[in-house]
Amino acid sequence: MSGLDVSVRGQLLNLMTVLQVRFDLTYLFVSYYLGVVEHLADRVAVIYLGHVVELGEVPDVYGRPLHPYTEALPSAIPTPDPDVRPQRIVLQGSVSPANPSPGCPFQTRCPYVQERCRHEPPPLRASAPGHLIACHRGAELHLAGVESSPAGSGKEQGRLQSIGPLAQNPPLMPERSLNQNE
Hints:
Layout: H1 6-23, H2 34-40, E1 43-48, E2 51-57, H3 58-63, H4 68-72, H5 115-119, E3 125-128, E4 131-133, H6 156-163
Antiparallel strand pairs: 1-2, 2-4, 3-4
Helix pairs in contact: 1-6
């Protein structure tokens, strides 16, 4: 998707959403574009160095992140309004994917790291129904989230409203004449 023109990308995402709703499809969609993930997904897995660190419904993960990496992700998104200056979370520390540290994969960059994190990998466990986290301190941290848009709420009606009149009866192929004389 990253190599596509913005308008083509939008059309493709809208078509994917229409097909998803119309045919009750499930996608496994991997992306760094959080807005696209929010638009297309019902559930999201946040992955750091190949490890799932948080998994849940889009509004829960975006609005109430439980892992420090998930909290930092939205602050890296540029804002189109030059008057709005969101607070950035700049992660410190170094990362060596080829030579990972023992313990939590995020421990070299985590602002909340404790000694336990350096030696014991956290298991992916339920913190709430349908919301999984791999963080020893997830239950005690109060992390900031972002408000999910109606289109990203996972509700079919919000999706249909966000993609316009084609949603109720979309053409599966562009309409064009097969008659070469026209």
